[in-house]
Amino acid sequence: MSSNRFDKRKKTITRTFRLRQEWDNVIQDEAQKQGVSVNVLLNKILRKYSLYSRWNDRNKDISMSPRTLREILSSVETEDVITAAKKSGALDCINIVNAMGLPMNYDSFVYLITEHLGGPSFARWFQCFHHTQGNKDIFHLQHDFGQKWSIYLENYLLAFLKAITDTEATTRTYEYAVTLNVTRPRTKIFAKTTE
């Protein structure tokens, strides 16, 4: 998958650039707070930009506090949450995959659920714990937004998955988590023809 090219160890380059003094002060202060070098912090910032923020900016995504999201969800009927989730899950799948230049396949779904939506550095819709058992992928998605967010996630991700592949999935929702069990699609094997 094309996004993996950012995760593997690759050759590094040295680049020199100018930045304003106040930004340098912020970067040095933050690096010290995190207990890392300025170089490590800048690479972390550039990784987030390369894998997430540039798509986020192009898509004009918005950020809101957890409290705001909880308040919005508490005022919406469950049926409306389900309708919105199904509609946006299917549309977002096509838009995200195409905008990022990812292949329209199951590997892209796994990447997006584990890193883009559920990783610690990007959208943070949930914290994703990914396990495999035989031919199944198990995604346990923990969050702090309550039952209606679990319902939203369940329907959003099932619609997302259905838009990208025809694989089977089952879910269980909890007040602060969703477990998604997906049967991994089999690789198609094409028989050789002999002449």
Please describe what this structure looks like:
This protein has about 200 residues and is an alpha+beta fold. It has two domains: about 20-60; about 70-185, no CATH class. About 50% of the residues lie in helices and about 15% in strands. The chain has six helices and four strands; from the N terminus they run H-H-H-H-H-E-E-H-E-E. The protein has helices at about 20-35, 40-60, 65-75, 80-100, 105-115, 145-165, and strands spanning about 125-135, 135-140, 170-175, 175-185. A four-stranded antiparallel beta sheet has the order 1-2-4-3, covered by helices on one side. Strand 3 and strand 4 form a beta hairpin. Helix 1 (about 20-35) crosses helix 2 (about 40-60). The two termini are about 35 Å apart. About 20% of the residues are buried.
Compact summary:
18% of the residues are buried. The protein has helices at 21-34, 38-58, 66-74, 78-100, 106-116, 147-164; strands spanning 127-133, 136-142, 169-174, 177-183. It starts with 20 loop residues before the first helix and ends in a 12-residue tail after the last strand.
Helicity level = 40-55%
How do the strands line up in the largest sheet? Answer: 1-2-4-3
**Terminal CA distance:** 34 Å
Give me the count of strands.
4
What order do the helices and strands follow? HHHHHEEHEE
* Anisotropy-based shape: globular
In quaternary terms, these chains amount to single chain
What integer value in Å does the Rg equal?
20 Å
Largest sheet, in brief, is: 4 strands, antiparallel
Task: Give the strand content.
Answer: 5-15%
Number of domains: 2
Class by helix and strand content?
Answer: alpha+beta
**Mean pLDDT rating:** 86
Regions with little confidence, pLDDT below 50 for 5+ residues: 188-195
Alpha plus pi helix count:
6
